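Morning F.,

Quick status update on the modeling queue. The single chain you submitted on Monday has been processed. Sequence for confirmation:
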Amino acid sequence: MRRAPYDRLVILRCTKKLLAVLRAGHAAEPGPTPDAEDWYANLLWFDRRKCLLLTHAATLFSIFEADVRAVDLRATHRLVTELAERELRREGLPPATFGNLRSQELILAKTADRSVLGCMNDMAFLCEVAISDAGGLAHIDLGNVNHALHRNINSSRGYRPPVELAAQQLERGQSSGQETAQELAFGAKVFRADP
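Structure tokens below.
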């Protein structure tokens, strides 16, 4: 059994659709124990284009990226890091709000929390409505869509906007003198995304 400090790993829990594009055998087996610091990812299709929805489990801070190519999806660590840093900057939050994603190892796993998946389904519907209202994916303002997702309240998080929960998480991390430092035990075969 291998033990690693969580602040050195990022768990990206992918839907079956996304794992298929990433070549399904890439998920950690057995999967890591679910944690509030996990990220979830879903592959969505709008206007015959692949789109990615990322969501942080604890805060539901979500990122929608349109027209993603399969080659970009397979460079998973780089893509997730760049998208998270971009959206945190847009919200005036430091790129390390969820830990230093660039220096952390990314592990792909299967989804584990139905509550997060349910919230992601709601967010996917919000994206679908925004795309329809804009007249199609080609006319959507991604900044506005992500801004709305960051403020989408949800009962599972006490009706608090994800951007507020992310800022609160940052404050907790600064006051404790460390970023999230939980330990996660997992074993056997692990796929490390684009080392």
